[in-house]
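Archive record:
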Amino acid sequence: MSETALILEIKGNSLDDGPGIRSVVFFKGCPLSCLWCHNPESKQVGAEISFQADECVACDTCLTICSLDALSREYPFFVDRQRCNLCFECADECPSGALSRAGIDMSVDTVVDQILKDKPFYDTSGGGVTFSGGEPTLHMNFLEQVLIQLKSQGVQTLIETCGHFNMNKFQEQIYPHTNMIFYDIKIIDKNNHQQYCGRGNELILKNFAALYKQWQKGGVEILPRIPLIPGITDTDKNIEDIISFFREMGVTKTHLIPYHPLWQEKNQQIGIEVETSTDIELQHWISQEKIKKCEDKFRSAGILI
C-alpha cells in the first residue's frame, strides 16, 4: 500500500523557492513552533479546520450542518475547537470556501502525478520541485518515495528544512535523491531559540555543520537562509553570532528572508490568538533600511547575499 502524508497544498508556478519555475509541496507538521511562522497552519501534525472571515457570505449553511454547535458568529474565531470533532462536513458544504480543511491525506502517486503535470515548465526554466512545510523531513518514508520517482523522471528537487531531523535517516533516505537543500538558521543562542522556536538548536546546528562539510567535499549543495524577524533574529547580536558560526563553517553565501506580518491573520484562521498585539515591530513589514543593514553586515564579513 502506498505511503500517505498530510499535504497542505501543492503550489505551481512558484519563482521564490529555488531556481527556475517550481512546484512547492507544503507538508503539514513541524518539530518547531516558531512564534512568527509564516505558515502557522503547518505546525500541527493533524488536520485542522480553517475559517477565513473575509470569504464568508453568511449563508448559514455550516450552522445548519453542524450538530455539535461548534460554529457560531458569537465565538471569537467562529469555530469552537473544543466542540469540533473535525468531521469537516461544514467545510465540504461551504459554498464560498470560507471554511476549509488544512491538511489533505495524499498518496505518493497522487503527489507525483500532480507534480509531473508541470514537468515541461521545469525543463524549460531549469526549475523543479521544492518540498516545504511545515517540515518535510517529518515524513521521511513518504518523501523518499516521492523523490525516487521524481529522480527517475529527471525532475530536479530541493528540500527546505528547519534542520531538526535524524541525520542517519536523512542520509539514508533523502540525501541520495535530492539536488539541493535550503537550510534555515534562525537564532544562534540556544536559550533564545528555545523561547521563540519551542526547541533548542543544538541538533539543528550540528546537522548543518555536517551537511555543509559534505557539500564542501562535493556533496549536495546547501544554502543557509535567515528569516529576518524584527527584534528577534535581526538583532545585532544574533546577526553577529550567525556570522561567527558561518565563518567557522566556511560559509560564503546566505539568503535573507524578509519578514511580513501576514501570519498573524493566518493564526486567527486556525483559532490561535495572536500574542504580539503590543509589539509594534511585528505588526509591520520589515523596513528596507533594516534589510540593507543586515545585508551590509554579511557582505562586510565576506559572505555573499
Notes: The beta strands are 4-14, 22-27, 48-51, 99-102, 104-107, 128-132, 156-161, 180-184, 221-228, 255-258. The chain has eleven helices and ten strands. The CA atoms of residues 11 and 177 lie 21 Å apart.
